[in-house]
Every structure is written in C-alpha cells, then in structure tokens.
C-alpha cells in the first residue's frame, strides 16, 4: 500500500458535526463502535452529546478530528484515563471514504505518540470485535498486540463474537 494522504489531528469544531454525526449514525458499523444496541440516532440527540463532550471541562478525555486536506474524515480519542496506573483506552472512527487508505493506522500511531509523550501514559489499550478485520490490521501495524479474548462477549449482526483486548 502507498503512503496515506497527509492528515492532521486537530481540535473538534462546530463545522465537524455533520461528518461526525454521519459516522455515529451509521448502523452498518454500529457494533464495531458501540456496546449499545443498534438504533437510529437522531441529530438532536447527537448534538446534545456532542455539545456536552466538547464543553465538559472536568473530563480528561482527549479527542481530535482526523483532517485530510481541510476535510474532517473521522475522530480519534483517548478516554477512561487511569491516573494511578497511567493508562487510557484509545478509539478511532473513520468515514467510509477514508477507510482502507492507511489514514487510520497513521492516526493511531500519531495518537499513541501523543499519549506517551504528552500525556505521560505507560500503557494504551483498546477493545475490538473479531469481525472488524480492517481495524485489527491497523492496530497491529501500529504496534498493538492481542492480550486476550472475551468469548461470546459481543452480539454482532445476529451472532456472538469474541471481543479482543489489545494493548501497547
């Protein structure tokens, strides 16, 4: 695969709401991104959550938009910080048109560097369902290793799957 297009990680802005809503409302990838039951997402519900997440000054969560040529194509976050053990979970979402181009792998690598260098973390971890093969490949390319599996942990598209715990 060729190098991914140039991208930046930047702060979330009001202008990003439409693409972030589009990604969040995509029922085809719901189970890959959320432990909640799939359901249609109303724009006003999304906007309430979006506003709360972007104005909450008590949260330690760190969220960037992934920007390619001035256009938001996804977001990447660090969350569930553990201050004592110095670890956090990472999560990424991409618009369908940004997938399979190396952007996710490169953004994960950049966020990992941010986590270790700027947030003073000792460990970054994530969970991923077994059928999300693109994500698993991207995580492995970024240096993550599988630490274990939770059997029949996720109900995905009519069957149970294992959920893999991965860490760096």
Q: What is the tally of helical segments? A: 5
Query: Based on DSSP secondary structure assignment, what is the total number of beta strands?
Result: 7
Report the sheet-strand fraction. Answer: 25-35%
The CATH homologous superfamily name of the domain at 8-124 equals Gcn5-related N-acetyltransferase (GNAT)
Could you give the order of the helices and strands? EHHHEEEHEHEE
Low-confidence parts = none
| Percent in helix | 25-40%
What does this protein structure show overall?
With 168 residues, the protein is α+β, with helices and mostly antiparallel strands. The chain has a domain at 8-124: Gcn5-related N-acetyltransferase (GNAT) (Aminopeptidase, 3-Layer(aba) Sandwich), CATH 3.40.630.30. Helix content is 29%, strand content 35%. It has 5 helices and 7 strands; from the N terminus they run E-H-H-H-E-E-E-H-E-H-E-E. It has helices spanning 17-24, 30-33, 43-55, 103-117, 133-141; strands at residues 8-10, 62-68, 71-82, 87-94, 123-129, 145-156, 159-167. The chain has a 7-stranded mixed beta sheet with strand order 1-2-3-4-5-7-6, sandwiched between helices. A hairpin with a 2-residue loop joins strand 2 (62-68) and strand 3. The longest helix is centred in the middle third of the chain and has 15 residues, at 103-117. It is globular, with a radius of gyration of 16 Å. The two termini are 24 Å apart. 21% of the residues are buried. The mean pLDDT is 86.
